[in-house]
Each structure stands twice: as structure tokens, then as C-alpha cells.
Design a protein that fits this description.
Radius of gyration: 22 Å
Structural class: alpha/beta
Helix content: 10-25%
Shape: globular
Strand order of the largest sheet: 3-2-4-1-5-6-7-9-8
Number of helices: 5
Mean pLDDT: 86
Low-confidence stretches: 1-18, 297-314
Distance between the termini: 19 Å
Length: about 325
Amino acid sequence: MGTTAETTTAAGTGPGPGLGLTWSLRGRGPEDVPVLGDPGPPGGHPTGPATGRGVRVCVVDSGVERDHPLVGEPAGSWVVVKDAESGEITVEPTTTGDTCGHGTACAGIIRRTAPECEIHSVRVLGERFSGTGDILMAGLRWAVEQRFDVVNLSLSTTRTRFAQELHSLADSAYFARTVIVASAHNTPVESFPWRFASVISVGSHQEDDPDLHLYNPDPPVEFFGPGQNVSVPWLGGRTIRTTGNSFATPYVAGLCARILSEHPRMTAFQLKNALYLSAANVRHEPGPSHPRPSHPRPSTAAGDTGDDRDDSEN
């Protein structure tokens, strides 16, 4: 094995989340990297007046109808625009609302679940649910850069050429504490970014309880929310009933907003754990004890001389 140059930053002194690489606290101790943490809600269930107050949720979709009584006025609305001649993609403020109803439906489920959260909209779909991977990428990237607390993405792309960039973007969001809640495809095909462990991926269940979510013991889809015959707001102030993973996803996004409104310092991995603990199918039973090994491996921390060659032996 070759040597690695000591060119990384020390913890707490480097650039923003996801921009630096820190894997050593050589010469520093716990007092040099203090963290003000939050244990999260007991059992993962939000308690008290957990309404989403103070939590910024961004719906990356087809827009949100501006005056729907079940949604209310969005706190901000933007649209991703691609210049036909230059191909340049920009994100601009808009007052055009929703092009096809899908985003309004998602926003309505979030509002119903977390009634006091701030809902923002980034339109990446046109009429008849039309859209492209580069527009989706641009809208999602912009939402992550704005450091929204929760991003609802009831969309995905099957184009593998976007997979690596989406993966990197999902990781950046995770480290910056922007939680992407992403819908699994409605058919068993590969699509992104729900396939990545750095997002909260959601499919739908068929239970009657509209306030129930489940954990999937066989990922990559991690959670199931109510997505069958769901009543949702639609264009023109109407409501319709519809089915799909798209409508289970904003329920879970709303749950995230409720939890974060009570525990704003929770990390993305804590939030996943809260969803896991509060899932209706997770049982909390004591497991068998695991005794410590009688001969623990020597430490290989900086300054120690442990030999790790045994790790490669079969």
C-alpha cells in the first residue's frame, strides 16, 4: 500500500459540509469539536404540538397552485428554465402555479401532515407530467443549495447518465442536513435518486390507516406510506382520489417536518432512525446479549503500531 499525503483539513476548520475531507483528529480532542446534539423524540414519535412550525419544505415537482384552500399560498415559488438556443439552465421566481396538479397534490399531503411548515415550490415538470433529467437535476441542486430542511421529490429518472451526479448531490444534501425524501418508481425498474442510501426512500402500502407508515426490512426502499386511493388537492381548487408512491412520499416528508419542528438539531441519520422506531411494524423486544471478545483487537489509532495484515487473509 502507498502512503497518503497529509493534505486534508482538521475537523471543524475546513470548508462547508461535504466540501472537505477529514479523517483524523490528530493532536486534537473532544473539546475541540463540540456538538450541540438532540436525542430526538422517544420511540421516534413526535410529541406535543409537533406541527412542522419553522421547518422549510421544498416540493420539487410540477409547481403548486397558489390559492388552493387545502394548501395555502406557498412561501416561495420558482421554475427551472432552459434557454432553447444556448441550453443554459436557470432557476427563476414564478407566479405560474402548477402545470398538471401533481405538485399541488404532494404539497397538500405535506400541509395535512405538518400544517404549520413552510412550503416552497420548484417547478421542474411541464404539462402532461413532461420533464427532462437535466431540468430535474438543476431544480434539485438548487433546492439543496438553498439548504431547505426537507425536500420532497415524488419523481425519479431512469437515465443512468444522471446517476453519478445525483448520487453526489444526494450525499451533499445528507452532509448539509437537507433531507431528501424520494419516491420509489411505481414499477420495478432502476431509477434515481431513491436508490441511494443518503435519501429517505418511500413506497406505498395498502393499509386503511392514513397515519401509518412501515419500515421495509428488505431495502432499497426503506419506508412505506399511505399511497392507495388517497384524497389529494388538485387543480382548480378540487380534490381527487389517486394512487401511487408519489403520494406516500409527501406523507413521510410531512412526518420529517413534524419531527424536526420539535427537534431541529437532529441529523439526517437520526431522522431515519426516528422513522424506523415509529414504524407500525417495528417491534421493540430485547435481543440476545453479545459478550465482548476475550482478546480485543489492538487499536490502530494514530500513533499506535497495530498490524492490519490479518484483515486480508481468508
